[in-house]
Amino acid sequence: MAGDASGAETYTTNEALSRLGFGRFQALLLGFLGTGWVAEAMEVMLLSFVGPSVKEEWGVSGGAEGLITSVVFAGMLIGACVGGLGSDRYGRRAGFLFTAIVSGVPGFLCAFSPNYATLLALRFVVGLGLGGSHVLPTWFLEFVPAENRGSWIAAFTCFWTLGTILEALLAWAVMPILGWRWLLALSSTPCFILLIFSSVVPESPRYLCSRGKISEATLVLERIARMNNRPLPPGTVTSEAKRTDDNYDPSVTTVLLMTEDRLDEDTSTKSNSKNTFQAFWSRDLIRSTLLLWLVHFASYFAYYGLVYLISELSSVRSQQKDSSLYINVLVTSFAEFPGLLLAAILIDRIGWRVTLGGMILLCCAFLAPLATQLREGLSIILLFCARTCVMGAFAVLHVYSPEIYPTSCRNTGVGFASVIGRIGTIVAPLTTTALLENHRQKEVVLVMDLALFLAGVACTLFPLETKGREIH
User: Fold this and answer.
1) Each residue of 98-152: pLDDT tens digit?
2) CB-based contacts of 207: which residues, under 8 Å, 6+ apart?
3) Which of 163, 239, 314, 372 is the most exposed place for a label (fewest CB within 10 A)?
4) Rounded to two decimals, what is the model's pTM?
5) How far apart are CA 468 and CA 116, in angstroms?
6) What is the CA radius of gyration of the chain?
7) Which pLDDT tens digit goes with each residue over 414-429?
8) Count of H helices and E strands in the chain?
């Protein structure tokens, strides 16, 4: 804490959250925003079950079936940019409402699609909403003290895996009896539940301070203090950072604070947008931004490539009974929990760079033997271990990605990184399926390993280790 020009005591949001700790408020927030993450995962995973049924009912081609998935990812590319810019300009709540409404309402209407073209258009709109879902972990992060931020964001990522499991169970129960339309309708219901209770979640105090709304930020912090039963520091909250840590590059930390100040001083919407882009393209942040893009692309590419590779080696596509697809999704989803647990344990102990780089390179190592022909049992074990590692890497990415940017451009920076990742989701199935259809498993493994190896190297080149660092 410090005094301002008039001698009055002031404190930052970082200092307030450290004093208030992780308590009842953050636990309830974790449950609420985590439910949003579950809802988004369910909307993505239902594509695994709906496509074959739509193909059979309407007699569309295999390419048309795959297009149902592709248009969702295409929408996510645009939605990631729109959601990021919107949440930085209008607030985290606005970003949340965008992703909940734009994915929930069209998702429900998909159940009443009269034809293939209508379903395709609605799934594209759903993708727009899903693209902005990165605001959920970022919103949560801005309420968590720096001391245990990494572990709790890793725990937050578990809700995604929970969503994939719930969707598989729901599909298993609904599809054989009621069909794909009921699955689409029921899968959208979590979004409507979130909208009903959305008014109880306050705006981020960090965002409010970055916009000069000190009195509103104070009210939010006082609410957290009451729920956590802990006192706020004496004085008045301020958006000005009071200190930086010695083990970080001062030039990078300085540009973060200068960028924040420039954004605060400029109240013009047009100028704010311009400065937002200037922030993460600045000389001191461009290196981190480009490296972050590479790691995002490789992680998304490897994750979805693994999903297709597991399906192929398990002979799911060519030889499966009615329940085999649901069992396969369930088992592979459970494989993600060890990676999330490992990330939660390590990230606040050894730092995000070692954890992220180590998990990416471990995934690379587990995949490498698959370039040769192995017994199916051994292949599945290696693939599950690889998926464990890549999901752990995702958990670390959700911690680090928002931390390198200041509050005023945080979601925009994360949104553009997410766009690059979504490109990886589009490239992965096209590359993997094309090579596997030509019996080129070796080439599939080599391409995925190359992407992962480059990402692992990139982790050593980031200029900042953000373990325990206060965000601004």
Assistant:
1) 888 888 899 899 899 898 889 989 999 998 888 888 788 878 888 888 776 667 7
2) 91, 92, 142, 407
3) 372
4) 0.71
5) 50
6) 22
7) 777 878 887 887 777 6
8) 21, 3
